[in-house]
What we know:
Chain A is of the alpha+beta class.
Amino acid sequence: MVEKKVVIPGDSGIHARPATMLVKMATKFNCNVFIEKDGTDANLKSILNILALGLTGGTEIKIKADGVGENEAVDEIVALIERDFAD
Amino acid sequence: MVQKLFLRDLLSNPEDTQLHMVSLTGEMGLGREIDSADINRPGLSLAGFFDHFAGNRIQVFGKGESAYIDSLSHNEAIESFKKFFSFKVFCTIFTHSKRPPDIFLELAEKNGTPVFVTDLTTASFIRLLHHVVSETHAPQKNIHGTLVDVFGLGVLIIGSSGVGKSEAALELIERGHRLIGDDIVNVKWVKESMLVGQGSKFIRHHMEIRGLGILNVTDVFGIGSVRNRKRIELVVKLELWDDDKEYERLGLSETHYNLLGMEVPYVLLPVRPGRNIPILIESAALNQRLKKMGVYSAQELDKRIQEWIKLERSDG
């Protein structure tokens, strides 16, 4: 299990479009990938799971991965959030 | 994960647990955390008896307390309130829409104690408060699955991603059953032996169906096809058919699934092209209802066969 903290940049938070980007990225990996907010896990391969967390800009989240390629998964997803979600 | 409950939360409860509380002291003290549903009726304290006074509880002023306050002269009232507020008081609530005298509010504000008024009766207020507090503090967990009300029985469908949970739920809805939540279900252990599930408040009755995208079930199938919460009485796990695995053939023994430490009746359904999963789930729900009423199909059949064998033997 690998995990990394990241703060969601920008103001708009994670709505449908960024959630889709996350799911697309996460499904490339074979391992289980999760996003955690306040102790609640959501499956990063499910759009509704991510949306259900209600992630606003400025929220600190954790990206977690478990299984084959867990390091790459966490690194690439965190990079995606930092790079593309800043508006 | 235990949720916290603050006084502020009591002011903005959803419809069915509405406490009808209005603050008479503005924003003051709304950030106080409620850690128990125990209340205190401060009648004795108002009359001047303070042994074992539980000021850290919610103080409920019902008809009795308000009538006592009304019976006091102005000076007696001031003296009684001053003594009352010489203790640290968590918060006070007046039922039956009875507003306390201004001097009470003044002293409460000095003490930092929030004062509320509600139009509920004392009995229903206490009952509702208890309900709200125990619900919030109940053990809970978010589960990856879909909760559907099938013939009045809450069926939680679980299984790995892409096995067809949402598709099965969609057909169940189409057949007249009701969706509670898809993809993520919040399960709470409410009472002794009762698990209640509800969907996420952000996504409510939306579903994601591969190839279609996101559907709003309420809009597509109508308000009759959804509900907000439901007791979970059966867990159905879908998994891809594994030829090397032995699946249940008789149903003589009962299997259970552990949810928050509670054992819930459980059915494992292997998925294979040609198997109509929604119908299987419907049958599982109906069978579970029969079991609840004490009718066990597999056991009944076994009993009949055993009787028949006995009969044959005695005849021969």
